[in-house]
Specification:
It contains three helices and 65 strands. The chain is mostly beta strands. A hairpin with a 6-residue loop joins strand 46 and strand 47.
Length: about 800
């Protein structure tokens, strides 16, 4: 019975011991491993915009990153699925693989001809997905549009008047683009009555525009000058031939009093504006002329036409019986106008006065008018007399710069008047027409040549955008205008003074001369290689100065280089990385296609961090190319700079960094307390974001004993091993350090207690409990603890109770059993 009690106590003690050991082991935990979904994918686009031209581009960079956004090498090949949200804009490569040991891979993107945006998404098992918006645009620098500009765009009606037409090549962004070959452009005018244009022009290769001439006459109105060429959008501009606008019809008779029986008077039907200024007909205008009393005054031609570009038309009326008649002129779209013609009896005389009548008395420049010289009674003005003999009349103009007149007219015997022509010049103003004859007092009348009076200077520029290429362009149009902004002719040569606010952008000629009778002149403007904006000012003595003209010079695309480093951070591990993209762009940053194979020179500001390919070539018709960055093992930052003749340089920063392992290297031992001479198996695990780091170098050390068969590098799973052995007792600090190019070195250690006793009393020799290996210790200590507890209870039993003979026999029997 006592033996049963003893066995029961032993069993209870064993169970209690096991429970205690399990409790102790439960406090010896291993380090926390990062969750796999802390890793993520990242997408960058380099360059971020590509042409919408049906081409394929290596621009989608997919990178592995840890939770801090730091690049992480793949522990094994990582397959990534890519999608594009708008396939009408572009398609991305469906699958890519980030190879083991790499941090990124580059996927291809194929654009369509439809510009727009599409969302690129990357997905891979065990990684947080990523997305990025890809933008496709019409490439800059490719000529697609014809733009027409006129200099000047408003011109006064004038026979033989000319102006400049520029046809400029523009790309899809509205910037000047150079012609790749000679381009023939067909020109046309919508209204040849108002103005015509040269039938064609040539835009030479490497030029951005070509020049033609437009030609005008006296017709007032507007016409559309258009330019067209196969493969280009048609351009146009409106030319305005500006003069007084016809608003009313005015009829006059010269003279208004005539003798009866066959004598004539000149009737004019003239167009005028609301201010009474003669206006040119925009089209042929038929005019009907009638007499209210045909027996007294008869119209010789009842239908006359005011021709396009002219201001009047004329006919004559013949006298009949004594009396008066209203002569009326009417035309479609105008109020009728009338004048009274009186027929009286004439008297014959050989002396009197000379009457001068103008038909009409107000005309535009470069127009003919009639001067009627009439013999009149000296005492009764306007009373016509009939010559008894031939009268020679001398006629003169007081201001021949305004107009001239025939010098002599002979009035035959039996007649009362004669006719001469007045011809106006291109200038506006007045002149006194005088007539005199022997035995007659002289007479005169004022002829007015009416046109816009010059008042101010105006400026314009053609084309709108001028290439900043160091060339000379006759692009600054200096105009003379009246107070209402209409073109006005210079009465004499006018010297205009010009200046540029920024001579680093462009230099305008100091002076330009507006020649007499002209309304404009072209001044030269020499650009520099600096694109920018300058203000041109112009002034002339006696005229209001022109407001400043803003002139913009631009670099024809492509004009600048952009550099992209993607990924911008890479491991500081010696190797070659395709991380540099070099793109040609216009001044607005829009991708521009190379006109020819373009060599770009690259450099790195800090070769200790990394170097770059010395040159890279962007093929003709492409916008960018990729270059290699050669990293070293030295972490740091360097700037990659790209230069090429004729382009603004570009640069980008790239950083190389050592990867900090996100989980401390783990070292484990199968025993933490051993006897001298006993071996201990060691295991090391090197991970980064729960992924094993392969091929990391391992360095082992111990403060007591030695390490045999140590792994010099981690295996594919980031694992390594070694064996610890010590012949002398004491605490042994075992340390292992892990390192790899591109990673910051890490280390960890454990403490192994070496005793001369087989079973240690506390398993730790007074040291803190180990951080790892709890289960291994449990397997080793549990049987020893059970035996120790059993021996202890037996020893206590024998000392406390002295057995009787019967008890000894019973014990012997039990032991036998």
């Amino acid at each position: 019975m006592a033996q049963r009690r003893l066995l029961g106590r032993l069993a209870v003690a064993s169970v209690i011991t096991l429970i205690l050991l399990l409790s102790i082991a439960s406090y010896q935990t291993t380090p926390r491993v990062e969750a796999a979904d802390d890793n993520r994918l990242s997408i960058t686009l380099a360059p971020p915009r590509v042409p919408a031209d049906n081409n394929t581009y290596d621009v989608v960079i997919v990178e592995l990153q840890n939770r801090s956004g730091f690049p992480t090498p793949a522990s094994e090949d990582v397959r990534v699925i890519l999608t594009s949200s708008k396939i009408e804009v572009g398609l991305v490569e469906q699958f890519i693989t980030i190879n083991e040991g790499s941090t990124f891979a580059i996927a291809k993107f194929s654009s369509t001809i439809t510009p727009g945006q599409t969302n690129i998404t990357a997905i891979s098992t065990g990684y947080i997905p990523a997305s990025k918006i890809m933008v496709t645009v019409e490439p800059s620098g490719t000529p697609t549009i014809l733009s027409v500009a006129l200099g000047p765009s408003k011109i006064a009606p004038q026979a033989g008047g000319t102006g400049t037409v520029t046809v400029q090549l523009l790309d899809a962004t509205g910037m000047p683009a150079r012609a790749e070959v000679d381009i023939r452009v067909t020109m046309s005018s919508s209204s040849t009555r108002v103005g015509t244009v040269d039938p064609s022009l040539i835009i030479s290769a490497e030029s951005t525009f070509g020049i033609a001439r437009f030609h005008t006459g006296f017709a007032v109105g507007e016409t559309t000058i258009a330019a067209s060429s196969s493969g280009y959008s048609t351009g146009s501009a409106i030319l305005n031939v500006v003069g007084p606008l016809p608003a009313k019809l005015v009829v006059n008779a010269s003279p208004r009093i005539i003798p009866r029986l066959g004598y004539a008077s000149v009737v004019t039907a003239q167009l005028e504006d609301f201010q009474g200024i003669p206006a040119r007909a925009p089209v042929d205008i038929p005019v009907t002329v009638t007499s209210s009393v045909s027996g007294s005054v008869s119209v010789r031609q009842e239908l006359i036409t005011i021709r396009s570009g002219e201001s009047y038309a004329s006919t004559s009326v013949a006298s009949g019986s004594i009396g008066s008649s209203n002569v009326t002129a009417s035309a479609q779209g105008y109020e009728p106008s009338k004048v009274n013609v009186e027929v009286i009896s004439g008297t014959s005389r050989s002396a009197g006065r000379i009457g001068v009548h103008l038909a009409p008395g107000k005309i535009p420049p470069a127009t003919e008018s009639q001067v009627i010289v009439q013999l009149q009674d000296l005492n009764s003005p306007h009373l016509p007399i009939i010559a008894e003999r031939e009268i020679e009349v001398f006629v003169a103009s007081s201001n021949t710069t305004i107009g001239t007149v025939d010098a002599v007219v002979k009035i035959p015997s039996g007649s009362s008047h004669g006719f001469v022509k007045f011809k106006s010049s291109l200038l506006s103003g007045t002149t006194l027409v005088t007539a005199h004859a022997t035995n007659f007092d002289k007479g005169n009348a004022t002829m007015s040549v009416v046109e816009a009076i010059p008042y101010k200077i105006a400026l314009s520029s053609i084309p709108r955008l001028i290439p900043a290429d160091g060339q000379r362009y006759d692009s600054i149009i200096v105009e003379l205008q009246d107070v209402n902004g209409r073109p006005a002719k210079a009465p004499s040569d006018i010297v205009v003074f010009l200046s540029s606010s920024r001579t680093d952008v462009g230099i305008v000629s100091e002076t330009v001369t507006l020649n007499a009778l002209s309304s404009y002149a072209a001044a030269s403007f020499r650009t520099t290689l600096v694109a920018g904006v300058t203000n041109i000012t112009a002034s002339a003595l006696g005229y209001v100065a022109a407001p400043p003209l803003r002139v913009t010079t631009v670099k024809p695309a492509p004009s600048q280089i952009a550099v992209y480093a993607s990924p911008a951070t890479i491991p500081a591990s010696q190797g070659r990385y395709e991380t540099i993209a070099v793109q040609l762009q216009d001044v607005e940053g829009v991708p521009a296609k190379a006109k020819f194979d373009t060599t770009i020179f690259l450099s790195s500001t800090d070769p200790r961090v990394g170097t770059v390919s010395q040159t890279v070539t962007i093929p003709a018709g492409r916008t960018f190319a990729r270059a290699s960055f050669n990293a070293t093992n030295n972490p740091g930052t360097t700037t990659i700079t790209a230069t090429a003749s004729g382009f603004s340089r570009g640069s980008a920063m790239i950083r190389t960094a050592l990867t900090q392992l996100s989980v401390i290297t783990t070292l484990q031992a199968d025993k933490l307390t051993v006897s001298t001479g006993e071996i201990v198996s060691l295991r090391v695990s090197v991970t980064e974001s729960s992924v094993g780091v392969s091929n990391a170098s391992l360095s082992w050390s111990t403060s007591l004993g030695s390490i045999s068969n140590p792994s010099r590098f981690t295996d594919a799973n980031g694992q390594g091993s070694g064996i610890f052995f010590a012949n002398s007792p004491g605490p042994a600090s075992v340390m292992v350090s892990a390192g790899k190019p591109g990673y910051k070195p890490v280390s960890t250690s454990i403490l192994i207690n070496v005793t001369s006793v087989t079973v240690p009393t506390d398993g730790s020799n007074g040291q803190p409990p180990p951080t790892t290996g709890g289960f291994d210790q449990l397997i080793f200590i549990a049987p020893v603890a059970v035996v120790a507890a059993l021996g202890f209870l037996l020893f206590r039993r024998r000392r406390r109770i002295k057995p009787t003979k019967k008890e000894k026999e019973g014990t012997a029997e039990e032991e036998y059993v």
